[in-house]
Amino acid sequence: MAKIDIYTKATCPYCRRAKALLNEKGAAFHEIAIDNDAQTREEMIERSGRTTVPQIFIDGRHIGGCDDLYALDAQGGLDPLLA
């Protein structure tokens, strides 16, 4: 099974959407909350090059944010990564 890291904030609706899609796919993921944690936020920025949440990684590959995850799924590219 794929190793999935997702950086999130509690108040982020895009984070909830991304997690809902992963849950719908039956994918287990490691949620990394960056709320009030500057060090973890900096780690996310270093890994992704982006400052917004969510930031999603599958097996170390940066997928992007919520829209990127849904686009990957629409193109049929998400399921093979989760297998």
TrEMBL record:
Coiled coil: none annotated. GO terms for cellular component: cytoplasm. It comes from the Bacteria. Residues 5-63 form the Glutaredoxin domain. GO terms for biological process: cell redox homeostasis; cellular response to oxidative stress; deoxyribonucleotide biosynthetic process. Keywords: Cytoplasm, Deoxyribonucleotide synthesis, Disulfide bond, Electron transport, Redox-active center, Transport. PANTHER family: GLUTAREDOXIN 2, GLUTAREDOXIN-1-RELATED. This is Glutaredoxin. It comes from Enterobacillus tribolii.
